[in-house]
Amino acid sequence: MFFVTHGQRGFLYLFSRTKLNEFCTNIQSSGADLFAITETSCNTSIYNAELVPPSYNILRCDRADGRKQGGALLVATNRFELRRVSLPGDVIIDKCTFELLCATVHKHNKYLFLCCVLYIPPDGNENEYMLLFRLLEQLCTKYKDMIVIGDFNLYSCNTHTINYYEYFVSFCELTQRNEVPNCNNRYLDLVLCSLSLGESVSVSRADEALVSIDRHHPPLVICVPQVRKQATATSVPDISQPLLSIQQNDDLWPQWNFYKADFNKLYYMLMMHDWSPIYSIGEAEDILNYFYGVMYSILDDCVPRKQRCSVNSRYNYPEWYTAEIIRNIKLKALLHKQYKISGLSSDYEMFAQCRATVKQMITSTHEKYQDNVQRNITRDPKSFWDYVRCKKGSVNHKTITKNGNNLAESECAHEFANFFKSVYSPRIAKLDWEAAVAESGVSSARVHIASFDANQVREALIKLKPKRSAGPDGIPAFIIRDCRDFLTYPLLYLYNTCFESACFPERWKLTRVIPVPKGEG
Predict the structure, then answer these.
(1) Which GO terms of type biological process are on file (predicted)?
(2) Which of 17-31, 100-114, 414-428 holds the top average pLDDT?
């Protein structure tokens, strides 16, 4: 696991969107798993989605009193999970001069270590230092394997504070691993590790920075071995089992990336396809299977499928990334690994050149994507609002806290199931379908439809909304609507066969249930 820590004076000060984009771009192209940032100067006007890609986790501790600088944040790729650790109830961090962000780091629901990111300004009050040290002491007694990263500014402290710092390090059994001095030959940013981790944790100067480098706070790379295998008392192994295998899931829920589709080829192939064999099929199930077989075959020729990345994959990218960008990002990671092994300047030059290429490609491609959204705002307003929601939306998964512990996803599902079970009656309802049918015929109006005609089907297809979202079959409505002239008759034959046989195909009985959470208010 690679950790990048960055101390930067106000890298988001005056909410510079230029630096926001630079920061987000560099995180996407970085090979690190975790990022610790201090002196962020973030505020409520900056959304999480402006800082990191949607698949990343981010925790923030912003300075709330309006003072410049300050603030801390912790970012993790989707390979890891961050669970915020609450401070004691009598401590209100917004009223302190320092910022302290604490979170446990998990992988596959297994506890790895506790990470604390902090910033305390120069010439800090002695009482503030004492409070900070005592908070960390409480945490170290509760959690095993602890890493504390941040700007302590100890050079401006009095003797009593320095002495207590030495006691704090000894009491918590921590060791200081940062040996990279700043421009004044000082160590403002400290990396304190538990002795159980300390000997195996290495700290070095970062080869690449997330934002412009502050000479007083050189960026650091921290290599932390993943040595913990057992779960802690606060993490329960995931006992949930998938209902479907990945292969079955791909067959039942196909997904294509229509942002990269060749629509000219797609529509041409659908127009030229000979649908005559479908009219010799008598069963509705077989007709539908033939219809989907043709549609899926043509879609696979014209539209790339969305690659199903594992949850712990580092390589999850925004949809506007091109294949060339993704290849270069992976190449950059390989070149960086090669340079770390060899230490040769020639390898570093290759890595640096590839890194510059990746940054330039990401910037230019993102600008083209934004320009395309703006140009098509009148024709395709949904894409614009999708972009806005992407920038404003939260990137963190909602968690449930029970008895002070954050529950894993499987545990959250069990808690919801237990709650719904508790509010419903355990008695089994008596169902009498014969009585229901008899009563329904008394006053209910009956509707009889013998069959459809081509005009009815075509008019229904015209009314389909031009949305990119799709149901379980993976085919968005706008494809069917745009190709109505040559799909009307195959669908008409399918619908009328269903009427005649009084049979509804099994594949059309599938649905996708998506919970819609309510707002914070």
Answers:
(1) cell adhesion involved in heart morphogenesis; larval heart development
(2) 100-114
Parent domain of 400: 236-421+450-521
**Strand ranges, E, within 189-259:** 189-194, 202-205, 220-223
Q: Which of 150-159, 280-289, 311-320 has the highest mean pLDDT?
A: 280-289
The DSSP call for residue 83 is E
Q: Which of 483, 509, 461 is nearest to 299 (CA)?
A: 483
Taking a C-beta distance cutoff of 8 angstroms, is the pair 69, 13 a contact? yes
Give dist(CA 66, CA 13) in Å, integer: 12
Query: 249 and 179, same structural domain?
Result: no
For the residues of 85-139, what is the DSSP string, one character each? PPPPTT--GGGSSSEEEEEEEEETTEEEEEEEEEE--TT--HHHHHHHHHHHHHH
CATH number for the domain including 206? Answer: 3.60.10.10
- Specify the pLDDT at position 69: 66
Residues 34 and 163 in one domain: yes
Model confidence at 395, in pLDDT bands (50, 70, 90)? low
Contact status, residue 16 vs residue 211, Cβ threshold 8 Å: no
The type of residue at 37 is: I
For the chain, the C-alpha Rg in angstroms (whole number) is 29
Please give the pLDDT value at position 136: 92
Q: How far apart are CA 99 and CA 121, in angstroms?
A: 9
Domain presence at residue 142 = yes
On the CB side of 456, how many CA atoms lie within 13 Å of its CA?
Answer: 8
HEC string of 300-322 equals: HHHCCECCCCCCCCCCCCCCCCC
146-151 vs 110-119, strand pairing mode: parallel
Burial of 131 (C-beta count, 10 Å sphere; 0-12/13-18/19+): middle
| Structural domain includes residue 445 | no
CA 206 to chain centre: 25
The DSSP-derived string for 400-434 is: -EETTEEPPHHHHHHHHHHHHHHHS--SPPP--HH
Q: What is the pLDDT of residue 462?
A: 92
* Structure token pair of residue 214: 């502050």
